[in-house]
Write a structure and sequence with these properties.
Largest sheet: 8 strands, mixed
Shape: globular
Oligomer: single chain
Strand content: 15-25%
Bound molecules: 5-O-phosphono-beta-D-ribofuranosylamine
Structural class: alpha/beta
Length: about 220
């Protein structure tokens, strides 16, 4: 059997994107789940799918930096080819980002560069946005600033609540994240410098699936 890339997924909570990454893995294999929250409901997917799972608790480490080092060490121990952040609510050390540069991904529930950070749905509603969505991007040392790979849009309706809007966005998250990771795993999406390149297959698929890709997404220059 051909070796396919291995993926570690880092979570802090519910884990619905983790579940979708597992269930839709075709050209990669999820081989490790790492959490900074031992109570994360998403940890159950590790047991359900028989994937090695590690949860580290802040209280077991004297300092935040030692805790972050331990998360880095656990990730390296799993020796994944790729790492996906899926609702991972912790800012990674710059060393972590540097080590996995070009192999480290995040999904964010907004159309970046709009609404980085928290409470994206609430902020989109407050600003009277007519459309909202999600973004998959490479991770750089900033918060939600790395090169954008793909986005999916949803409409915002006048009667929307945060719950209704977040659910609509989440459905698109579950489709776009595995699509990106499968495409990266096949070498159909790659990063050079801070520019994302797409194969013609990916361009065609993005069109068909109504995902937005950027032929010039060098939003930030990696500082190393
Ligand atoms: C998702 O909305 C994701 O975009 C954001 O955090 C949420 C995690 O949800 N980064 P889940 O844990 O994957 O269900």
């Amino acid at each position: 059997m051909r070796d396919i890339p291995t993926l570690a997924v880092l979570i802090s909570g519910r884990g619905s994107n983790l579940k979708s990454l597992i269930e839709n893995s075709v050209d990669y294999r999820v081989t490790a789940i790492i959490s900074n929250n031992p109570e994360a409901p998403g940890l159950k997917f590790g047991r359900e799918y028989g994937i090695k799972t590690v949860a580290l608790s802040r209280k077991d480490y004297p300092s935040l930096s030692e805790y972050k080092c331990a998360i880095f060490e656990e990730t390296k121990k799993a020796s994944p080819d790729l790492v996906a952040l899926a609702g991972f609510m912790m800012i990674l050390q710059p060393e972590f980002v540097k080590f996995y540069w070009g192999r480290l991904f995040n999904i964010h529930p907004a159309l970046l560069p709009k609404y980085p950070g928290l409470d994206t749905h609430k902020r989109a509603l407050e600003h009277g946005e007519k459309e909202h969505g999600c973004t998959v991007h490479y991770v750089d040392p900033g918060v939600d600033t790395g090169p954008i790979i793909a986005q999916a849009k949803v409409p915002v309706f006048p009667e929307d609540t945060v719950e209704a809007l977040s659910q609509r966005v989440l459905e698109r998250e579950h489709a776009i994240y595995p699509w990106v990771i499968n495409s990266v795993s096949r070498g159909e999406i790659r990063l050079e410098g801070s520019t994302v390149y797409y194969s013609s297959l990916v361009k065609a698929e993005a069109k068909e699936k109504n995902f937005i890709i950027f032929t010039d997404s060098s939003l930030k220059t990696f500082p190393y």
